[in-house]
């Protein structure tokens, strides 16, 4: 110990002229409780550089406290720092481990180089306790909209904390109805609104970590607002015997109590619906609903609705011809009536479009009947009679089928084929109802009654005329079409080569290639 004091004294006397060079970078230095921290120096890392002495002290309230004194061959470490400090002999930096809150404060260093230069410096160490136990406490979680002011306070354990409030992922800042106080610990929302329900939470942080509170959600009592009454079905006029449902709704928390009024007088019914079943004309009048919130002590009426109940049209019936209608020969009369209810108007539609008079179509003055004379193919379709009064309408439908044809008979198929190939002839015709078919070959009837006539393997004997006869059993008309088929020798038709012909062509091409190659080779030899 005496040797250490003598060396330090000798070093300090020999380096007195150079004292004052700054050894430490600007601070402070920060560390976590129970963690480690390094005090860096401004001295570069260099193996060639060695310090005669490195002395670190802690400036406590009662004076400097030695931390470590380091000589080239000896380190003097007080018991309080034994096992907790390490000095870098090249740079002079100090590592302090197992930090405690009492380690916070000012640290000073004095370093003397081999050339007698003294480096000194001071820096602050801030030891931070971890952030924990973050809680957010509100003065109420069930405020009344517009009436109440809500305050939420954030508390936490830890060192040098700062606080931030968030709504979801958005930071809350002061402004308008929102204010932050007590170092951002307290969030105040005045005249709270339903949209302020949250979830809100606070973050407590220091330079090392951030912890958040649990969510705070407000059950804001509001309303009733926007009281609305609807009627299903939604009309101004209804028929006797109808079942009506009046529904009332309002924006409210908690849900509003809903009351009903008829012609200004409260009814005994309470709830979101008022059902009027099997209505009578005496139930015509003004209906409205009232919404009440027991928490906010507020009322809200809906608008009134005038409901009128009258008798409806029923039993619409559209009659027409019962026998078959043949185009160009038959006439059709359609009549539309109803069993009950006064008819204000009639409307005729054909295939969903308004039916208009024409040279062959006549509509009676009261629109109760339609006459078509004679019927045409274009008159086929669905006829609808729509009966209407102020409170209802009813429809009746009649489907008119006009028979015609057959016409435009044709046969699709090849007119020339090679022997042995498959032949498919298909006959078609325009006809209602659908035509039936029969076939003849060279004027001789064949036992084929389908639209298709098929020959699996054509022979020369199949050459001839194929007649398709189309028949309509309603119109009693027949129509025919003659298709001529010619069966040719194999390979005689363009684009239809036999396998033997294809093989011959391939062989011929190969022989030609060989001849050309021989000729070219002889020519090349002569040139040489």
Automatic annotation (TrEMBL):
Signal peptide: 1-20
Coiled-coil positions: none
Domain Ig-like: 130-215, 224-300, 301-403, 406-486
A Pfam family this chain is assigned to: I-set
Keywords in alphabetical order: Disulfide bond, Glycoprotein, Immunoglobulin domain, Membrane, Signal, Transmembrane, Transmembrane helix
Top-rank taxon, per record: Eukaryota
InterPro entries in alphabetical order: Ig-like_dom, Ig-like_dom_sf, Ig-like_fold, Ig_I-set, Ig_sub, Ig_sub2, Ig_V-set, IgSF_CEA-related
Transmembrane segments annotated in the record for this chain: 501-520
The protein's name in its UniProt record: Ig-like domain-containing protein
């Amino acid at each position: 110990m005496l040797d250490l004091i003598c060396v330090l004294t000798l070093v300090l006397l020999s380096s007195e002229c150079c004292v004052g060079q700054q050894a430490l970078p600007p601070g402070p230095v920060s560390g976590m409780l129970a963690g480690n921290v390094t005090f860096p120096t401004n001295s570069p890392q260099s193996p060639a550089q060695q310090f005669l002495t490195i002395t670190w002290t802690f400036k406590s309230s009662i004076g400097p406290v030695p931390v470590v004194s380091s000589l080239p061959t000896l380190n003097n470490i007080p018991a309080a720092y034994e096992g907790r400090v390490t000095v870098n002999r090249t740079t002079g930096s100090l590592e302090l481990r197992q930090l405690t809150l009492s380690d916070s404060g000012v640290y000073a260093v004095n370093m003397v180089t081999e050339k007698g230069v003294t480096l000194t410096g001071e820096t602050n160490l801030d030891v931070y306790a971890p952030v924990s136990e973050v809680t957010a406490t509100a003065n109420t979680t069930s405020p009344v909209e517009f009436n109440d002011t809500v305050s939420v306070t954030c508390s936490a354990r830890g060192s040098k904390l700062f606080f931030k409030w968030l709504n979801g992922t958005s930071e809350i800042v002061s402004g308008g109805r929102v204010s932050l106080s007590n170092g951002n610990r307290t969030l105040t929302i005045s005249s709270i609104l339903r949209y302020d329900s949250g979830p809100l939470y606070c973050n407590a942080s220091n330079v090392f970590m951030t912890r958040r509170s649990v969510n705070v959600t407000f059950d804001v009592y509001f309303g009733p607002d926007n009281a609305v009454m609807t009627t299903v079905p939604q009309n101004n006029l209804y028929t006797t015997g109808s079942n009506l449902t009046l529904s009332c709704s309002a924006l409210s928390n908690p849900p509003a109590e809903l009351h009903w009024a008829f012609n200004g007088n409260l009814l005994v019914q309470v709830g979101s619906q008022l059902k009027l079943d099997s209505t009578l004309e005496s139930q015509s009048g003004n209906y409205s609903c009232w919404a009440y919130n027991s928490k906010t002590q507020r009322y809200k009426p809906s608008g009134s609705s005038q409901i009128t109940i009258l008798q409806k049209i029923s039993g619409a019936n559209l009659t027409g011809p019962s026998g078959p209608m043949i185009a160009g020969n038959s006439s059709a009369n359609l009549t539309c009536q109803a069993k009950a209810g006064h008819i204000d108007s009639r409307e005729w539609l054909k295939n969903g479009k308004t039916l208009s008079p024409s040279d062959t179509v006549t509509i009676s003055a009261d629109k109760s009947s339609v006459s078509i004379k004679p019927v045409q193919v274009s008159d086929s379709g669905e006829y609808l009679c729509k009966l209407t009064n102020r409170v209802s309408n009813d429809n009746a439908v009649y489907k008119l089928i006009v028979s015609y044809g057959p016409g435009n008979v044709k046969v699709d198929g090849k007119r020339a084929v090679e022997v042995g190939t498959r032949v498919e002839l298909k006959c078609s015709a325009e006809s209602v109802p659908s035509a039936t078919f029969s076939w003849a070959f060279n004027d001789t009837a064949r036992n084929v009654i389908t639209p298709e006539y098929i020959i699996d393997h054509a022979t020369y004997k199949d050459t001839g005329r194929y007649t398709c006869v189309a028949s309509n059993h309603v119109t009693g008309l027949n129509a025919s079409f003659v298709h001529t088929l010619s069966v040719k020798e194999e390979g005689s038709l363009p684009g239809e080569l036999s396998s033997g012909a294809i093989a011959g062509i391939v062989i011929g091409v190969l022989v030609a290639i060989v001849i050309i190659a021989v000729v070219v080779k002889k020519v090349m030899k002569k040139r040489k």
